[in-house]
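Many introductory courses stop at the sequence. We go one step further.
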Amino acid sequence: MLTNDKFCNLLKVYGMRFAQATSAIRSVQRSIQTMKISNNTILITGGTSGIGRGLAEALHKKGNKVVIAGRRKQLIDEIVAANPGMEGIVLDVTDQSKIASFTADVLKKYPDLNVLINNAGMARMEDWKADKVDMREVTETITTNITAVLGLTQAFMPHLKKQKDAAMITTTSGLAFVPLAGGPTYSATKAFLHSWLQSVRQQLKGTSVEILELAPPYVQTELGGEAQKKDPRAMPLDEYVSEVMQILESGNTARGEILVERVKPLRDAEGNGSYDQVFEQLNGMEFAMV
């Protein structure tokens, strides 16, 4: 049983640790590793479209061995054919029963694998004013965006920890920091991943594995359907990928986050006091910023 005295003592300890953490922010940021940009063997889930495909092709051009994973074999074949040297594997990340065998097959074929990019994800809009919400879609969103990421990470992490230069990158969203009211579950899954990544990064501190969070703004991809892919208000995919690659090459990943300029108003809203204003602006828009 936690007595009042013990609770007070815990608060004192947490207070001291918070003060120590605050004073150490700069030194911690300087100590974050920098992912090497070439000569890696990289597995990218959700690599058949959007940001996943864009990163796969950009990293392939930098001299990395890139393996894409996705559900659609036809798309995998088309992308591999267009990028000689790239390889692909069919995977439905929501099927947890296949993760163990998939991991074993990948590591047998690519024993030098040292980078895992958890990019597969899905987004659905939900109307909680309605009498009924499609809980099947809600569950599928959680399974794809959270359960699959955790499952793949735990499957590959023992191997990654044995590699000299390793990294695990997980795609979240600017909506992890300021949610889109029309996509509450999607936004919440990305907020979950942001929190989870901070803890995993701390636990793996001192190992060879760098834990990075890729938080995109509203980008022209198929995630929100054809409307998003063509929306002129969204950041063009090629511009986004180009800026991400510049950040990776520069090593400018303070806090372990890969942030293009367009997403910083969302990322910084809570800290700079603009959260309420940004939330109202975001949710006053007529499009889904995912």
